[in-house]
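Feature request disguised as a bug report, sorry. It would help if multi-protein outputs had a clear separator. Right now it looks like this:
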Amino acid sequence: MLVFIDESGIPHPNDSTTRPVLVGMCLAERDHRRLNQALFRYKRDLLGSEEPIDIKGTRFLRPRVLNRRPRKWELTQRIFDLIANTNLCVFAVIMERPTREPFIEPATLPWQYRRLLERINVYVDQFGRENEMAVLVFDGEGMGGIPGGLTVAISKYLFRHPGGQALTHILDTPLFVDSEITPGVQLVDMIASCIRQYEENELFRRPCGADPFLSALDRFYRVVERKTMDLETPIRPLYGLVRMPERYFYLKEEEAPEEEEQANRESTP
């Protein structure tokens, strides 16, 4: 099983985003080719190009695109229709912008990644084929902010940490690909941007009103929400959309959180 992982926003006090999000999208290998073919047709028909075009939320999921770029906006809508009609599963860790710089030990996997990998492992165990493994796929630009790099941090966690050693359905070597030619990375980028903007606009607590972009954003979020799944385990439930408390940013490697994060739906009105 392919698991495309991307973040929207960086959990740092100096970052402009207030609700950074880390997302994993689980997809069977056999469905990736269909996604590639569909995106190729959309780009050709709407943008008039057969050359690779990197679709990112920062470029497509914007009010300016809705108001001034009708073909790009049509592509955005088709992408969320494609997400709605594809057999995939989404998990997301929603964070608050930390008030001080997070504590990250060298080659140590931050808590938001651990929580995401935990969900991916249980999902593959419960819904994957026999002996199936999750192949983690990241944008080739990688994820910043981890001393020693993400690959080393993931490998160290899976091999040396008791929590990581229990994740027996995750391949220990992640892949880094060119997002321009990898549709799965493009879709998860759009999903992450959608969740982050939905959160930052606090659409969970107020109506969209007459704003056409916020109305569309709310509609896209509902598509993503229907693709998430809450998982049951003998220890505790693992929510598909989950909020991670700020204090997780300051935990040391040997420290364990006192309680599980709140489900997104339980922590919002």
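(second protein starts here, but nothing in the output says so)
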Amino acid sequence: MSTQKILALIAFRDEEKLLPGFFSHLREFVAGFLAFDDCSTDQSTKIARNEPGMLEFFERHVPSADHHFEVQNRETLLRAARRHGADWVLCGDADERLETRFLMNLPAIVNDPPAKIIGLRMVAVWENLNQYRLGHSRRFLLFPATDPQPYYPPGHLHLPWFPPALARESRAVLDYHLYHLGSLTRTDRMGRYEKFKRIDPDSKHQPVGYDHLIDESHLVLAPIPPERAFRYE
């Protein structure tokens, strides 16, 4: 374990199928979890509360559209990370899995960081757990625990986790994969597309729109080699 204290942060809603794997694939690599359950109606709350590494758990019971309180939920978690003495925070979603090689190298990365804000190449696991879709996405998910205030305005989507105070800090995208399971099947992809079209019908929060979630016109797949494996449960 690194001499730097790393806490994993997650906000979720109705993720009972994916939460156990999210927690288990990170558990031995972080000092604990901070989680925010935003109106789940399934077993997500029970799963999170029973997680042995849970340091603090937040709940919201105000009915709302998906992601409506995304900014507020993230700010709450970032403030909690500071209270719990985190040096670094690792932010993720229930449908994401980190390359095991990255997790094993995490202590060295935070002890001698190449930049203040660390990102990974985000790839969509496609149709089975042994291949992914080639693309150019990336996600910044690892950065020093920082006072998030002032944070982003409420009601916005697709904003970064790191607070505005870090916006001008150095960034690096490392040569590891962040695997996205939310596009695994055609049904998953259509579900994501319909969700974002419903909550952002005019693409105000993402001007390029959401057609790319279901567009397969330039589909190129690649196998996941053993050295880039991730843990799935």
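Even a blank line would do. Unrelated, but nice: The radius of gyration is 17 Å.
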